[in-house]
Amino acid sequence: MSITMIALILFCLISCTTQNESNVQDGPVLQNGLSLQNDTSLRWLEDIPHNPEIDKTDFKLCYDEQKAIQYYRVNNSTGVKNIKSEINALFKSKYNSAVVKKETGLVRIRFIVNCKGEADRFRLLGSSLDYKAKTFDKSITDQLLSITKSVDRWKKDTDKDDDKDYYLYILFKIIDGKIVKILP
To answer: Exposed, middle or buried, 56 (CB in 10 Å: 0-12/13-18/19+)?
Structure first.
């Protein structure tokens, strides 16, 4: 198993623990300073309830919230895996490292994709390379979020899982303000 894969697994495990502890109190605090209300109806750790302060009002899931599946239960043909090269090219062409602070760490953007390939409920989570919580400068996170939101369709027309709503994430490894790796 590669070091990158081990780092990704550790980051996800630490993220889950951090969010679980946050939910016990007042709910997680997002990178943008907004806080989610503690929602005891969540089925799984990291379900993303609608927050009218930051989410689109016209974004709709195709099915009941309880039917949205987690990214690890989605067929490999769905989501970011089938457009990985396009995602990499998009960030390479649009992300401007010359105008950002020279920070290092990991930035995860997690969101939900409906059965039509539309995405919303974007949430940021940052950490240092040693997996300690970190708030990145807006010059980095605003760009990453804006570019991620600019993807107009997260599924290809050839997807076999077009009838599912699912959660997805993109993890950026940032070194001195430059994107050096995009996962998954």
So the answer is: middle
* Residue 37 to residue 166: CA distance in whole angstroms: 21
Q: With 50 as the cut, is the pLDDT of residue 30 above it? A: no
Residue 48: both structure tokens together: 């993303």
Q: What is the CB neighbour count within 10 angstroms for residue 49?
A: 14
Q: How far apart, in Å, are the Cα atoms of 27 and each of 24, 87, 112, 162?
A: 7, 31, 19, 31
Pairwise CA distance, residues 72 & 168, whole Å: 9
Q: Cis before residue 49, ω within 30 degrees of 0?
A: no
Rounded distance between C-alpha atoms, residue 77 and residue 99, angstroms? 35
- pTM value is 0.69
Assess whether pLDDT exceeds 90 at residue 97: yes
Alpha carbons 162 and 107: distance in angstroms, whole number: 28
Closest by CA position to 136, among listed 167, 157, 163, 109: 109
38 close to 26: Cβ distance less than 8 angstroms = yes
